Amino acid sequence: MFASGIKTGKNSLISNTSKDPVWRKRFIFVLGISLSLISCGGHPPYDPNWVSSGEKVLFQGVANSNRDDGIEAFKDGDFELAVKRFEEAVFSNSNDPEVQIYLNNSRAASQESSLKIAAVVPIDENAKSAQEMLRGIADAQTLVNDEGGAGGKLVQVIIANDGNDPERARGIARELAVDYDILGVIGHNSSDASKAALTEYKVDNLAMISPTSTSIDLQDPLFFRTVPSDRDNGKKLAEYAEATGIEKVAVFYNPDSAYSNSLRREFENSFTQSNGSILNSIEINDDNFDPKQQIEMIRGQVDAIALFPNTNTRNVAIGLARANTELFKTKLPMLGGDTLYSVDTLNSGAAAVDGLVIAIPWFPISQEYAKRAEKRWKGAVNWRTAASFDATLALLKALENDTELTRDLVRQNLRDLNISSSETSGEPLAFSSGERRVEPILVKIVPDASGRPRDLHNGFQLIKETVPLF
Fold this sequence. Notes:
The chain has 16 helices and 15 strands. By secondary structure, the chain is an alpha/beta fold. It has a 7-stranded mixed sheet, sandwiched between helices. The protein starts with 12 loop residues before the first helix and ends in an 8-residue tail after the last strand.
């Protein structure tokens, strides 16, 4: 289902008409119109190189000769050899989730029958987040397959790279949706990509579970998520602001991002209902945006700033944090969205982001899953990995059925799920209208935090609970 393109050869339209200059010009003109229609939204873009279940490397720049040999064996249908080579690849690079998924896929493909799901991650735009997601996906796939599979069948995971681009996400979603062997999708990463992809999944009744998309605009019987929505995150940050005496806030956000705009709206609603005041909602997506100028303009008028960038504008938020540090003798308190929970924030922001309070879905403390994942991946994991593990586990549980599986049945099984905290990353998992009822957690960036990345001066530290959300 993933091969597409214009055929060539002696029976093709191109070869039969290429000797006729007039016809050739007409053909090129028609082809140009067709491509223009595709780029304008008639058909979303699609490239088979964005998708792999073991036939190609999606994470470029990572050398592993055993992985490359495994890929060649997988393409040749020699799954026994592929298993052997991917096992060696995992041993030589145990921190790479791509090769672990390919190993699992090879074992599943060697069986008489298997089940297929897809995972869509933003490799081109954010390889770190993509790997964090795939580690959780690989953990759940390995766990279920090692126990005999879902309903007695091993599971293959098709990995797709949408680069967090909405149109590209649509193209991938269209291809996944029309492959009826695929029973569900884990992803997408950004709310904008998820929103675009959902329009395609709805056409063919394919359920998706996002471990990272939080926009409240994502509402559909086929949409599920394993993280709190922006409504919950906004409320949590507003409650923290009220509890710490913050009364006036300036909000910085990207109006073109479904996630950023959603979080901004929900924070402002909750904060103003608690008698807080929003000085201004300031758009940060202008190419001429000047962080220092913006911080100067709010000097003396607010008690704090709220930074709600999407991934593409995260560097602007870090610039605001730097301006906040450089211009004020005592910098303003800062609140932030979960996209700022990243090593890149610590690395680029350094001391300027110290004190930033962020609402996130999960934090590694002493959960059994956190211990297992840290041991497996040779380092601490974060909320994207935990939420991806839970999302994949939920989908695989929905595939455990004695009757013939259909997409309708998978969707219904997801709605009926009730998974205990001992099986998940630490919290019970059940969906209410697609939403998981789990409370956000607040963390603060502090110097010398326990478990901070090596060679960095700061890290994330859990804040003691304030007012319970539920």
